[in-house]
Write a structure and sequence with these properties.
The complex is a heterodimer of chains A (116) and B (113). Chain A is mainly beta and 116 residues long. Chain A contains no helices and 11 strands. By secondary structure, chain B is mainly β. The chains are: A mainly beta (116), B mainly beta (113).
Chain lengths: 116, 113
């Protein structure tokens, strides 16, 4: 399968714990995006990488959130000191570098986080 | 800041009927996407519309784009139960150093026998 993959698919954690999610983009894609989707809403942009550089962060991304993409391949999204409001589906997407950012984004299956 | 509004947010239809979902966006957009999402699943790309007057059809779904009105529509013809899902439109526009996708809240479609 050559699509975007995410792990884990589901994560249940207690409030105050740290969690880390992983995204493996389509291999030739140099752009990688993270989105958050809460129940009944559309996905909201969190952050964006071009290769290993994190070029943009949404104001939704509080100080407790950090994302990395070492070597421009897979990416991790870490949430520290989780809160119940962090419960959501976290979606990763990737796109090719052609057409300057206009390329279609391909979405992974998502990681569903539940904070109890 | 680009805003995307969909209506209706909830749509219950009978099999065999036709209906349209509307998607308005607030500023100029470079691309307009329609996605389908089944419960607990990720997004499946349905259509990408690039220019004014674009129309695309796949099976019982047809999407169109009017850039002057900043309006896209998703028309459902002779609905069947398998079309039950949440449908999102998303507009792609340049914001800062990057093109960003902004999604609507989605339309939860239920097709009843």
């Amino acid at each position: 399968d050559t699509g975007v993959s995410q792990n884990p698919r589901h994560k249940i954690t207690k409030r105050g714990q740290n969690v880390t999610f992983r995204c493996d983009p389509i291999s030739e894609h140099n752009r990688l995006y993270w989105y958050r989707q809460t129940l009944g809403q559309g996905p909201e942009f969190l952050t964006y990488f071009q290769n290993e550089a994190q070029l943009e962060k949404s104001r939704l991304l509080s100080d407790r959130f950090s994302a990395e993409r070492p070597k421009g391949s897979f990416s991790t999204l870490e949430i520290q000191r989780t809160e119940q409001g962090d419960s959501a589906m976290y979606l990763c997407a990737s796109s090719s570098g052609g057409t300057g950012g206009l390329s279609e984004q391909y979405f992974g299956p998502g990681t569903r986080l539940t904070v109890t | 800041e680009l805003k995307v509004e969909q209506n209706p947010l909830f749509l219950s239809m009978q099999e065999g009927k036709n209906y349209t979902i509307y998607c308005n966006y607030s500023t100029t957009s470079d691309r307009l996407y329609w996605y389908r999402q089944d419960p607990g699943k990720s997004l499946e790309s349905l259509f990408v519309l690039l220019s004014n007057g674009a129309v695309k059809q796949e099976g019982r779904l047809m999407a169109s784009l009017d850039t002057k009105a900043r309006l896209s529509t998703l028309h459902i013809t002779a609905a069947v139960h398998d079309l039950s899902a949440t449908y999102f439109c998303a507009a792609l526009a340049r914001g800062g150093s990057n093109y960003k996708l902004t999604f609507g809240k989605g339309t939860l479609l239920t097709v009843n026998p």
